[in-house]
Amino acid sequence: MIRARSSVGSEHLVYTQGVRGSNPFAPTFIPKSQKQPAFRDFFMSVFFTYILFSEKLDRYYIGSTGDVAKRLEKHLQNHKGFTSKAIDWKVVYSEKFATREEALKRERQIKKWKSRKMIEKLIEG
Description:
It is a single chain. By secondary structure, the chain is of the alpha+beta class. It is built from 4 helices and 5 strands. The protein has a domain at 47-124: GIY-YIG endonuclease. The protein has helices at residues 39-44, 68-76, 100-113, 116-124; strands at residues 3-5, 11-13, 47-54, 59-65, 90-97. The strands form 2 sheets. Strands 4-3-5 form a 3-stranded antiparallel β-sheet, with helices on both faces. The longest helix has 14 residues, at 100-113. It is globular, with a radius of gyration of 25 Å.
């Protein structure tokens, strides 16, 4: 333990690392790089790449999310954007991933195909 002497002669601890809680002489925040993931994030994080289909538009929509059911609800609500053009969207395909980055990578991969035949082949399995 490192100790220092003040000009008055009493001994004080020297600040050497971040401290949680109220401390007027040290930062009370923890940098993101040192934070531990929350229990929920660590054990229950699941992400999906999904494909929706609208019979009215005869079109597919590709996206990614942590909760497909909630995301579909948002697509079906009144909003602006591509999916607002129809209210009959149905989930026709989804893939499960451990991280958001993997789900986004797969979403971009499918979107780059720009091929209805390949998307339908994927859906059929």
